[in-house]
Write a structure and sequence with these properties.
By secondary structure, the chain is α/β, with parallel strands linked by helices. Helices cover 39% and strands 16% of the residues. The protein has 3 domains: 6-65; 81-106 and 208-390, Rossmann fold, CATH 3.40.50; 110-200, Rossmann fold (3-Layer(aba) Sandwich), CATH 3.40.50.1100. It is globular, with a radius of gyration of 19 Å. The structure holds pyridoxal-5'-phosphate (PLP). Pyridoxal-5'-phosphate is lined by residues 108, 110, 135-137, 203, 235-241, 299, 346, 348, 376-377.
Length: 392
């Protein structure tokens, strides 16, 4: 990737800078997540809507603003933006769109982040990647590691949807089932990693999963012909995509491809694990650990996101919202999406739709606004959830 303009890594908290030519996890000074920084002045010379038209149809088309390495790719990104007319009608919204991330490899948008993270891990000579997961990140990591010829160690809660456990094993990963939550799985990986020489690709513990997920922001900009929607609804666990899209918008502005107007960023969570919603309601800048987290939307079961301060900063700066729904509400929203649009979304996607339903009722989303719902994953791995939602 000769046209990458990656220049260094930066800590958004203490502004420490680091080289990207060595594997890096958190900021060695303050333990904050690190962000990749580019020479956008240079990127600007070749990055344009017209230039993009001639490039490959995967997220790797945004080469100026992605890391410099040979991509480990399974065709991630460039997912369809579907005008949800019938669902929109049912809500009185004329411009409701669904970005169907379920059409990514391994059925979720985790493919974007893990494609980028595994690409850099391989380029930097890592032999085995490791991560805790509440669900889809494990499947994606295992698939990309298999494609790259790297080892992959995964820790996940015993009650993770069985299809996800099976896909990880099928992709040849070493799977550790933990009787606990993703935070317990994270502690397990952090403890085991140095012993086995594993490189941690846990959410925000390395800088490139954000880079993969930020491509959702670039795609929206392309999908809407060089503009952005009014509202983006994002089912939020660790918040990587929300932080990533915000970063993409800043980069687009720095390249003078958009102005300073931003979409309102809506974080959708589940009642059983809503640390960002609680922090938002208290106008706090960080979250507090959610005790006894429990929800069928396994990807949202993140009791204390590492990047909580970044998620909240972006929500406040965009005049956004954070909204939680019960498991019954989010599964019922999933059924609405399935029956009105023919899209079988993951329960996490249902949380996003339930948030829209609530914000429309509260008149916080207007009829004429352009709203994008991220259906972050497909519903096909969640048989247990469908069985209870549909009864029998
Ligand atoms: C992981 C996951 C999420 C949460 O993503 P974050 O970027 O960690 O907030 C949402 N939906 C699905 C389907 C997921 O797999």
């Amino acid at each position: 990737m000769s046209s990458s303009t990656l220049s260094h890594l930066e800590c958004p908290r203490c502004k420490n800078t680091l080289e990207y030519s060595r594997p890096q996890n958190l900021c060695p000074k303050c333990a904050s997540p690190l962000l990749a920084r580019y020479n956008l002045e240079k990127a600007k010379a070749t990055f344009s809507a017209a230039a993009l038209k001639t490039r490959i149809s995967s997220m790797w088309r945004y080469e100026e603003v992605l890391p410099a390495a040979t991509p480990v790719t399974l065709g991630e990104g460039m997912t369809p933006l579907i005008h949800a007319r019938r669902l929109g009608d049912s809500l009185g919204l004329g411009h409701l769109y669904i970005k169907d991330e379920g059409q990514n490899p391994t059925n979720s948008f985790k493919a974007r982040g893990l494609s980028a993270a595994v690409t850099m891990a391989k380029a930097l000579g890592i032999a085995t990647v490791a991560l805790p997961t509440a669900g889809n990140a494990g499947g994606a990591a295992a698939a990309y590691a298999a494609h790259a010829g790297l080892g992959c160690a995964i820790a996940m809660p015993v009650d993770t949807p069985s299809a996800i456990i099976l896909e990880c094993r099928a992709f040849g990963a070493e799977v550790h089932l933990i009787d606990g939550l993703i935070s317990d799985c994270g502690a397990f990986i952090a403890e085991q990693a140095p012993r086995h020489g594993w490189f941690e690709v846990s959410t925000l513990k390395e800088p490139y999963r954000i880079e993969g997920k930020k491509t959702m922001g670039y795609e929206l900009w392309e999908d809407f012909g060089g503009t952005l929607p009014d509202v983006i609804v994002y089912p939020t666990g660790g918040g990587v995509g929300l932080i990533g899209m915000w970063k993409a918008f800043e980069e687009l502005e720095a390249m003078t491809l958009i102005g300073s107007k931003r979409p309102r960023m809506i974080a959708a969570q589940a009642d059983g694990c809503a640390p960002i919603v609680r922090a938002f309601e208290h106008h706090a800048n960080t979250s507090e650990k959610w005790e006894n987290a429990s929800t069928v939307a396994s990807g949202l079961r993140v009791p204390k996101p590492l990047g909580d301060f970044l998620i909240l900063e972006d929500i406040y700066a965009s005049h956004g919202e954070a909204v939680a729904a019960s498991d019954a509400e989010l599964m019922s929203a999933c059924l609405d999406m399935a029956r009105l649009e023919g899209i079988l979304g993951a329960p996490e996607s249902g949380a996003g739709l339930a948030a829209i339903q609530k914000l429309v009722s509260a008149k916080k989303i207007g009829r004429d606004e352009t709203v994008v719902l991220f259906s972050t994953g497909g519903g096909y791995k969640y048989m247990e959830a469908w069985q209870s939602a549909l009864g029998s």
